[in-house]
Amino acid sequence: MNRRTRTALLGSALLLTVAAAAGSAGASDESRREAAALTGKAKLYRTAGDDITFSFDAHLAARDKADPMKATGTFEWSHYLNGEGAWAKAKVDCLVTGGKVAVVSGVVTDTDLPGAKGTRVGITVHDLGRHDRLGYSWATTEDLGPKDLPKCVGSAPFEKVRKGTGGFTVVPWRPDF
Could you give the dihedral angle defined by the CA atoms of residues 69, 86, 55 and 170, in that order, rounded to the nearest 10 degrees? Predict the structure, then answer.
């Protein structure tokens, strides 16, 4: 076999190997897709000028598709006006999404708000691109709400995010029903 023939055969073999790898990578990407996710950061709109920020890094692994209470991650928020306010960080304990809406709950693990540590909170996000909306469980309860708030409970997304800050992304959950 001459050098030209050998080079052509090796080139063909290489192309077949790359094509096969690309095909199997595409299939494995779909099988590795998260079952659900809520990520991003945005500021809420308030006419009084409050500085309110929410950020999310919540995920439900594909292997846990059947159990949204196996979600992992954190979410944080802060609320300041005229230099006064508070912040909190929660560990995710449930994530359910449907279309572009996500409900995430978690227990406050770190905060400067007295009495809030250990409290479960729930937040609902509607991913509308640059016009995202958000709601939180403590909107209709005292302070951050009762310590026995059930997992994956949030309020309707009644708050608007500040123009130009809508940065939430919801990966829809597709359970096998």
Answer: 50
Contact 38, 97 (CB under 8 A): yes
Please say whether the beta carbons of 35 and 41 come within 8 A: no
Structure tokens that stand for 11 in this block: 């080139």
Burial class (CB in 10 A: 0-12, 13-18, 19+), 140: exposed
Find, among 18, 24, 106, the residue nearest to 58 by Cα.
Answer: 106
Instruction: Report the C-alpha gap between 38 and 120 in whole angstroms.
Output: 18
Strands (E), the chain: 36-43, 51-60, 72-81, 84-98, 101-111, 120-126, 133-136, 159-160, 169-171
Q: What is the pLDDT of residues 80-89, one digit of tens each?
A: 999 999 999 9
Indicate yes or no: pTM above 0.85: no
Query: Are 59 and 36 in contact, with CB atoms under 8 Å apart?
Result: yes
Tokens 């997992």 label which residue?
Answer: 151
- Strand, coil or helix: what is 146? coil
